[in-house]
Every structure is written in structure tokens, then in C-alpha cells.
Write a structure and sequence with these properties.
Helix content is 67%, strand content 2%. By secondary structure, the chain is mostly helical. It has one domain. The two termini are 21 Å apart.
Length: 266
């Protein structure tokens, strides 16, 4: 059942187009940096000033650019459509006639959305590595601590950054899945999920609400650059992953509680 759901998700045109756009973002960045020579140190998104010196940083710059908007938007579309989309098409009741049951169906939907979170972030990271190799030189990587690591170690850290960014989106994915069980209108669930992400980001940008920031699921989305330190600083990364796990647990439980008692009419 899970394999069938994964095939169904990743064969959808909108999902393939979303992944293609995410893969092209690093190439767009690389072309802009190559044409302009890149910003001076301290200007622009993290790592952008380093891109022209080492193509590995193209992937990290692309992750920095896509985390605030592009990745949350694509995850919101997939998560918000997970259950509500079936209801709007009239196939949800048919799926529930199978002996799998509501809990298993919801679990499979959640796993599929989680797989998309990982795939989308890794597509950006992998696309960045390819774009960096095409447009810029590759070599040993100078970390944010000033030390030098091998190219293989640098590439491994970039891919790990993609995994961490994907995991950082699981809290938002769980919120979207919950909202998808509440309504039969996928557009409404998608819009509400995007709205939650925007509100969280806005609140995180208000200094007067500093007491709230550590509890916002968007607060440590940009923790992955700590992988480029020597030694790696795990404090913010671990805190982010634990917070995402808490959000995922709470909203997945809410989705289960709502979905298992919901009258399915479509």
C-alpha cells in the first residue's frame, strides 16, 4: 500500500513539476553568480559569496534560498492535498472500503508526505552540487570555522544538510496533513498550511516575541549551516529536529483523532 501511494504521489504532474522547479533553483543561482561575479562577503544569502570559489557552496546557498518559501510551499501543496484531494475526487470512500482501515490509510499518506519532504530538499541539494560542478571549480571545502575539509567530506555534509532540511519540514507537513483531514477542499487545506508557515515566520521575525521563538517550527529551519563548522555544532540542529518531532507527533495525533471519527461522504 505504501509503495502504491508513493508511486501515486511522485507520478502526479504537479509533484514532478515542483521537483523540477526546485532542481532548477540552484542552476538559476549559479547562472546569476557566474554572470555577476557574486556578492561581496556578508551580502546576500548565506554561502552566496563563496559560490564562485567552490561549487559545493551552490547547494548550500540554494537550500538557504528555498527554505523560507519554495520548500514550505511545495510541502504545503502535497500535505494539504493528501486526504482532502481524495475527498474532492470522490475516491476517499472507495479507499476506506479496503480492509486497510483509516489508521493505516492515514499512516501511509503521512509517510508519503514525509518522503516528499526528504525528496524535495535532497533535490535542491543534489541540483546545487550538479550546478556547482558545471559552473564553478570544485575542491577542498573551507568551513565556516576556517579549517579545510576534503571535497568528499564537503559533499557528504551537503547531502546531510539536505536530509536535515527535509526533516525540518516534517512539522509543517504534519500540520498540513491534519488540515487535510478537516476539510474536503484541498485548496483550503493548502492555503491554510501556507498561512500557518507565513504566520510562524512573521512571529519569528518580531524581536518583542523572543520568548515565543524557540517554540515556532520555523525558528531553526536555517540551522543546517552548522554542519559546515569544525567540529560540527549540533545544538541548534538537534533542537530543531526535536521540535519538528514534537509538532509531527501532536498534529499527527490530531489528524488521527479527527479522521477516525469523521463522517466520510465523498
Amino acid at each position: 500500500m505504501l509503495l502504491a501511494e508513493l508511486r501515486h504521489t511522485f507520478r502526479r504532474t504537479r509533484v514532478r513539476v515542483s521537483l523540477l522547479i526546485l532542481a532548477l533553483v540552484p542552476f538559476f543561482l549559479a547562472v546569476v553568480v557566474r554572470a555577476s561575479g557574486g556578492p561581496s562577503a556578508g551580502d546576500g544569502p548565506n554561502f552566496l559569496s563563496r559560490v564562485s570559489h567552490n561549487g559545493v557552496f551552490t547547494a548550500l546557498a540554494a537550500l538557504t534560498v528555498t527554505v523560507p518559501l519554495f520548500l514550505p510551499l511545495t510541502v504545503s501543496v502535497v500535505a494539504g492535498d493528501a486526504v482532502a484531494g481524495e475527498a474532492s475526487l470522490g475516491t476517499l470512500r472507495y479507499l476506506l472500503t479496503r480492509p486497510a482501515g483509516r489508521l493505516r490509510l492515514l499512516t501511509v499518506k503521512g509517510a508519503s508526505v514525509g518522503a516528499f519532504c526528504m525528496a524535495s530538499a535532497l533535490v535542491v541539494a543534489a541540483g546545487g552540487l550538479v550546478a556547482g560542478a558545471v559552473f564553478f571549480p570544485l575542491g577542498p571545502v573551507t568551513t565556516l570555522s576556517g579549517t579545510t575539509i576534503s571535497l568528499l567530506d564537503g559533499v557528504s555534509r551537503v547531502l546531510l544538510a539536505g536530509v536535515i532540511v527535509g526533516a525540518s519540514l516534517l512539522g509543517l507537513a504534519a500540520i498540513g496533513l491534519f488540515l487535510s483531514t478537516v476539510t474536503d477542499v484541498p485548496q483550503g487545506a493548502v492555503a491554510a498550511t501556507v498561512g500557518v508557515a507565513v504566520v510562524s515566520a512573521v512571529l519569528d521575525a518580531v524581536p518583542e516575541l523572543g520568548w515565543m521563538h524557540p517554540w515556532l517550527f520555523t525558528h531553526d529551519w536555517q540551522a543546517f549551516p552548522d554542519l559546515l563548522r569544525t567540529p560540527v555544532v549540533w545544538t541548534s540542529i538537534v533542537k530543531d529536529l526535536l521540535l519538528q518531532a514534537a509538532y509531527a507527533a501532536v498534529f499527527a495525533t490530531g489528524a488521527w483523532a479527527w479522521f477516525t471519527t469523521k463522517d466520510v461522504l465523498a
